Amino acid sequence: MVFRQRKSQRFFMDMSAAELKRAASAPPQHPHEEPNGSEILVRSLQAEGVRFLWGYPGGAVLYIYDALYKQDTIEHVLVRHEQAAIHAADGYARATGEVGVALVTSGPGVTNAVTGIATAYMDSIPMVIITGQVPTAAIGLDAFQECDTVGITRPIVKHNFLVKDVRDLALTLKKAFHIARSGRPGPVVVDIPKDVSLSRTAFQYPATVEMRSYNPVRKGHGGQIRKAVQLLLAAKRPYIYSGGGVILGNASAELRELVDLLGVPCTNTLMGLGAMPGGDPKFLGMLGMHGTYEANMTMQHCDVLLAVGARFDDRVIGNPKHFASVERKIIHVDIDPSSISKRVKVDIPIVGDVKDVLQELIAQIREARQAPDAQALSAWWGKVNEWRKRDCLAYRNSSEVIKPQYVVEKLWELTRDSDAYITSDVGQHQMWAAQYYRFDEPRRWINSGGLGTMGVGLPYAMGIKLAKPESDVFCITGEGSIQMCIQELSTCLQYRTPVKIISLNNRYLGMVRQWQQLDYGGRYSHSYMDALPDFVKLAEAYGHVGLKIEKPGDVEGALREAIALKDRTVFLDVRTDPTENVWPMVQAGKGITEMLLGSEDL
Ligand SMILES: Cc1cc2nc3c(=O)[nH]c(=O)nc-3n(C[C@H](O)[C@H](O)[C@H](O)COP(=O)(O)OP(=O)(O)OC[C@H]3O[C@@H](n4cnc5c(N)ncnc54)[C@H](O)[C@@H]3O)c2cc1C
Ligand SMILES: Cc1ncc(C[n+]2csc(CCOP(=O)(O)OP(=O)(O)O)c2C)c(N)n1
Ligand SMILES: [Mg+2]
């Protein structure tokens, strides 16, 4: 087997930002020549401190690939499908907080990337996607591999650029990185025609960038924060609902401090898990469609709700009329003014960065030298703990058939004290991972919430493992989802990114089957997975280890074996109960307290 000799991981990790910047300003190979657009692109990426790039070549980006060949600070990972390039860079961004960067060619390269870009957009992930374009003179002429990249991606990016002149390239890239990572983060596409990637000009990377029309607010309005403090201190039944914005804004420490300071219950959305420690007594678990009974009941019955970096998604509030049917005051902190009062009317809007705003809130509460009414708070906790007693995540384990919840619980037990990252795909397995793996830290739970894209799990894991070579990276998936990007097993081998795939194989598109059982009269239309491949052989064919697990008693041993095989990608084909459902569940159209807690509620 021939591997491309990969530079040692350490080499990249050891380079300081200053060294990367020095590489960017190194003189060109032919000093009499100005750099071409491709070299300018590479140097701009170096100036931004980019270490990894996921991509796939093609005609329109060959000059760029030539420039990549001549440098050695950025490691390019050749994926097997462009969708996976975007997902891998997206996973890297989610786990590290840095901008994820991907490179694809024009036409089919771009259209293959669309799902990845939309996935990142829906979850506000900072990314820069470089796309090749046909030469400027050929644009609009139905040229070979031409598509309107700017038009196709416009609704699924934070911003996009078509660079028509090489003299604009460095500044455009500077803007792209700035836009991607500032304010509400998001993906930015930079479309570079082939002639631009070849034309030459002087290179200077701008140190700063000013955009008159783009100035995201960081500091919250002092008066609004004061009002929020008064409301929180006067509350009898306060509740904090935090989301992906707290993770994206690196504000978990502030959230934890505020929760402790006020002594109030707190919930996280699917995207916010890890912001509060999973085992903290003030944490009520995830809320929403598959949230805990206590998290949803508390949402509906609180009198003051502080929403931080969360966008009142339909999966969270259920039927909006039911949600609005009770009186409560809502304080909403969000960096994007368009998120505020979008789905739910709020009383105190605070536009600003969650870290800045929470710090200010905490400072003002401390200054006020007041605490919420202790008696009222204790009565409120009494109610919350009553709801908690329902123990809604309890499930009946079995010694005959493997329960998916048991697999996730075991994984949590075996990895809770280690430096583990968990990715997932989309479906029932995703919900069980969210419910039964208790995330204690932010950026450890990596999944697609907004677009709900099957196929992300493996590329996410692969992207994270490259950045975190010492950490164990697990992908909890289903036999349906894993097949959407399974070709990336090949990339994992080439770049030596050993990940552990735990496929909860129920032989069904389980989440679809569950909806068909509950809402479509048990008519299981095309949700059964017949003719599945032999995943063990498939893993082996890709050069990895495959294990099939069929008995509950073998689960722990197999997980231990996979973890012990530190340097190997291991595919665990875990045959789980095909009839198991995700509980609790709020069915479509129902209010968030109208939950089904188990099959006995049917
Ligand atoms: C099968 C399936 C089932 C699901 N079930 C559930 C469920 O039961 N419960 C659930 O919660 N979700 C569920 N989801 C996910 C759901 O679809 C949404 O993705 C999720 O609820 C949105 O989370 P969020 O509100 O935290 O918003 P995010 O999409 O994470 O948005 C973050 C918000 O924070 C803001 N923000 C970003 N950065 C900052 C900053 N620095 N400062 C301030 N604000 C900032 C943004 O402007 C945005 O408004 C499910 C998804 C799938 C696929
Ligand atoms: C790309 C894509 N296509 C379709 C869907 C709709 N969908 C959501 S969950 C699901 C089933 C997933 O099956 P599997 O991966 O086996 O997971 P399970 O629900 O069985 O755990 C489907 C088809 C989706 N989310 N993404
Ligand atoms: Mg399945």
UniProtKB/TrEMBL annotation:
It comes from the Bacteria. The keyword Cell cycle does not apply. Residues 425-574 form the Thiamine pyrophosphate enzyme TPP-binding domain. The keyword NAD does not apply. It is an enzyme of class 2 (transferase). It catalyses: 2 pyruvate + H(+) = (2S)-2-acetolactate + CO2. Residues 225-361 form the Thiamine pyrophosphate enzyme central domain. One of its GO terms (molecular function) is thiamine pyrophosphate binding. Pathway: Amino-acid biosynthesis; L-isoleucine biosynthesis; L-isoleucine from 2-oxobutanoate: step 1/4; Amino-acid biosynthesis; L-valine biosynthesis; L-valine from pyruvate: step 1/4. Keywords: Amino-acid biosynthesis, Branched-chain amino acid biosynthesis, FAD, Flavoprotein, Magnesium, Metal-binding, Thiamine pyrophosphate, Transferase. Its cofactor is Mg(2+); thiamine diphosphate. One of its GO terms (cellular component) is acetolactate synthase complex. GO terms for biological process: isoleucine biosynthetic process; L-valine biosynthetic process. Residues 36-151 form the Thiamine pyrophosphate enzyme N-terminal TPP-binding domain. Binds 1 Mg(2+) ion per subunit. Its EC number is 2.2.1.6. Belongs to the TPP enzyme family. NCBIfam families: acolac_lg (TIGR00118), PRK06965.1 (NF005409). This is Acetolactate synthase. It comes from Piscinibacter sakaiensis.
